[in-house]
Write a structure and sequence with these properties.
This protein has 726 residues and is mostly helical. The protein has 32 helices and 7 strands. The chain has a 5-stranded parallel beta sheet with strand order 2-3-4-1-5, sandwiched between helices. The longest helix is centred in the C-terminal third of the chain and has 27 residues. The relative contact order is 0.06.
């Protein structure tokens, strides 16, 4: 995990020296500090500035969780899991995951934009603060959380000197004209020193003089204040400043402003052109109009892993939403927004099976707030339940391939549990896809009961309606469940049958290739290593041809097994290094931890028992986030048992336990870095090989007898290594 996910400042921070010092002091004294104030007063900017400056105070860094775009209260804990960069494949709830992860850390968590979810947020933070003594929370919102031990910093508008400095700075950035100091100070006073209002005014100074801005503001203030200067409360001052800025916009700028309010979180130009264009705002004008809103500080541009994105401040978006409602166009625009993101999800699913796989993951990550909004809209009406099922099913690659199982399960359960007012036959395909995806997710979460129920329903309904594709997927995933349950003959039979169906149907994608890898594993576990290698060599070839990396990593895992068995440690290590790199890129903990387990055995075979034990300890920590270690499978446990035995005999009980504990202390990123660095002593890697190489796959004879649960491997009298294995 990176020490910080705080965004870079897009322009220079101005003023607020006393407030920065006070907030830093409160964070030293209290474990929960909430910054409150009216909209636009600069709460978030101050909090992020102070948090960035305090990173060295927190050994495990600073993390930001943004909640403003959330609407579903059940996703608050998921958002914090996301902010912390955690991946958890288990059935544990996100609250439990958070508490366990944070319990041993010294970390500052910044929670921004919670006011519309205050009850859920307050309850969760209270629980985390009680269970995690090293956690400090900096919350930012328009009201306090009212949690015991909370210190509240009410952020006032800027004093006059700071306000003048901010207006001067922003005007210089836009080449605006300031004129006489007196009118400048008067403008800052009229805007009550509210930073957002000052930013909006600065955005107008390239076209208007300060005196002209003052005149227009005075006219509006007198209207709203009944003719009395200075009678407006500060929240009205900001609203008036936003309204004045709105009046100065052209009709097309006002229209785009209103329509942009349907976006949740960041959005790109293509989305704006589809969602917001129309007869009154042609698509070829959208870029220019968006540029004008950007120049006026109504929209902000930011960089993301998926490229440049735009975002509208919550206060500005709320004003636009009111205008959109006044136009009677809210529902139509929400549907257009939903349609765009359903199309984006469909494109991403197709492009997942291409060289753009990593880019697809980044695009989906960035689009997640808007995908959530699309799912929410689909679930609001029984007539659109099938659309929710379709969208939740289409995102299978994200749930399963990018470490989002828990959230995927949330949406799949909601979509499949929602009432559908339409005839069943009309929406059957969407339901069938959601069912097999739910079965897949449940298998990876270690929930066989839910998996069997979903896959059985999918198979039965698919056969009844003649949907051969859905039936093949249900059969495939039942075979995957058999594979993890140590029923290798049944796994081979079911997966083989599904692959035959895929070929007949012309189905080829990452799921199909993963089926070939799973078939290879079933064969290898039954002693047919040659057949397994042939299957995975074919998968590797298709992956190279199509640019597919996610499934390729699993094929490399099986090929590394074969190389190790043949005594080619260098080839095994090289294959596993690529496997680990890919899985870490996609946050796929299942593939990652399996590769680390096998790399530990490679390292032991190379003669570095201590490093092998370190890797085993590191792997066991990852299993805590994956589920039952090695799926509770005797077959998958084979490499760990062999490695424990070999390293335990060489190191002895105390030596093994010390190295094992060193591995357990490694973070996920540190584990990956260490694994990729290889053995620290290159001379050790030239050691064991040939006849003495371990055989991690069982022969057909031994396949009938599960590997014993090595609770106390040889040379490990404390049993620590055995506990890790089970």
């Amino acid at each position: 995990m990176r020490r910080s996910n705080l965004p870079a400042e897009l322009n220079r921070f101005v003023g607020r020296a006393a407030e920065q010092d006070e907030l830093a002091r409160l964070l030293e004294e209290f474990r929960l500090v909430t910054v409150v104030g009216v909209g636009g007063v600069g709460k978030t900017r101050l909090a992020l500035r102070v948090a960035a400056g305090l990173q060295k105070r927190y050994a495990d860094g600073v993390r930001l969780a943004e909640l403003a775009a959330l609407r579903d209260p059940e996703l608050v804990a998921h958002a914090l899991v996301e902010a912390l960069g955690l991946t958890d494949h288990t059935l544990r709830g996100p609250r439990e995951v958070l508490t366990e992860h944070l319990a041993q850390l010294r970390l500052l968590l910044v929670v921004d934009g919670f006011e519309h979810l205050v009850e859920e947020c307050a309850e969760l933070l209270r629980e985390l603060l009680r269970g995690c003594p090293g956690l400090t929370v900096l919350a930012v919102g328009r009201r306090p959380l009212r949690v015991d031990g909370e210190a509240v910093l009410t952020l006032a508008p800027m004093d006059e000197d700071d306000a003048v400095a901010l207006l001067t700075e922003r005007a210089a950035e836009t080449a605006g004209r300031l004129g006489e100091p007196g009118p400048v100070r008067e403008l800052c006073r009229r805007l009550d020193g509210i930073p957002l209002a000052l930013e909006l005014a600065a955005g107008r100074l390239p076209l208007l003089s300060v005196e002209q801005v003052l005149q227009r503001l005075d006219d509006r203030f007198r209207l709203l204040g009944g003719g009395r200067r200075g009678a407006l409360p500060r929240h009205q001052t900001l609203r008036t400043a936003i309204g004045w800025s709105h009046e100065l916009c052209t009709p097309q700028e006002r229209l785009l402003w209103a329509r942009l309010s349907v976006f949740a979180g960041p959005f790109d130009l293509e989305a704006v052109e589809y969602v917001c264009a129309g007869p009154e705002l042609p698509a070829d004008r959208v870029l220019d109009v968006l540029g004008e809103l950007l120049a006026q500080s109504l929209v902000a541009r930011e960089e993301s892993a998926a490229g440049p994105r735009y975002r509208m401040l919550d206060t500005v978006a709320a004003y636009g939403a009111q205008w959109l409602a006044a136009l009677g166009d809210t529902e139509r625009m929400r549907r257009r927004h939903r349609d765009w993101y359903m199309g984006l999800a469909t494109w991403c699913e197709l492009e997942w099976f291409s060289p753009r796989q990593a880019a697809v993951a980044a695009v989906t990550d960035t689009a997640l707030p808007n995908l959530r909004a699309a799912l929410e809209l689909c679930l609001e009406s029984p007539e659109e339940t099938a659309l929710a099922q379709h969208l939740a099913g289409t995102l299978w690659f994200y749930w399963a391939g990018c470490g989002r199982l828990s959230e995927g399960r949330h949406w799949l359960d909601r979509a499949l549990g929602a009432a559908d007012s339409a005839p069943v036959a009309e929406h059957e395909d969407a339901r069938l896809k959601a069912l097999w995806v739910l079965g897949y997710v449940a298998i990876l979460q270690g929930d066989p009961t839910a998996a069997v129920a979903a896959l059985h329903e999918c198979g039965e309904r698919a056969r009844a309606t003649g949907n051969a594709v859905a039936e093949a997927y249900a059969t495939h995933r039942m075979g995957c469940l058999a594979l993890l349950s140590d029923d290798m003959p049944r796994a081979e039979e079911l997966i083989g049958r599904a692959l035959d169906s895929y070929r007949e149907l012309g189905e080829l994608n990452s799921n199909v290739l993963m089926g070939q890898v799973e078939l290879a594993l079933a064969r290898a576990f039954q002693g047919d290593l040659e057949g397994a290698v042939a299957e995975c060599a074919q998968v590797r070839e298709v992956c190279e041809d199509r640019g597919e990396r996610w499934t390729r990593a699993y094929a490399l895992y099986v090929l590394a097994y074969a190389a190790l068995t043949e005594g080619d440690h260098g080839a095994a290590r090289e294959l596993l290094a690529e496997c680990i790199t890919i899985n870490h890129t996609f946050h796929d903990l299942v593939g990652l931890v399996l590769a680390i387990e096998l790399l530990a055995l490679v390292t032991a075979a190379e003669g570095d028992a201590a490093e092998a034990a370190v890797l085993q300890g590191a792997a066991m920590r990852v299993w805590d986030s994956v589920g039952l270690p090695l799926f509770g499978s005797g077959y998958f446990k084979g490499p760990r048992a062999l490695c424990e035995q070999r390293t335990g005999e060489e190191l002895g009980g105390e030596g093994y336990e010390n190295a094992y504990r060193e591995g357990q202390a490694l973070s996920l990123d540190a584990m990956v870095e260490r694994a990729l660095a290889g053995s620290r002593d290159p001379a050790m890697r030239a050691g064991a090989g040939g006849p003495s190489a371990p055989r991690p796959f069982r022969t057909s004879r031994s396949a009938r007898t599960p590997v014993p649960d090595t609770r106390k491997p040889a040379g490990s009298p404390t049993g620590k290594g055995g506990e890790a294995a089970g």
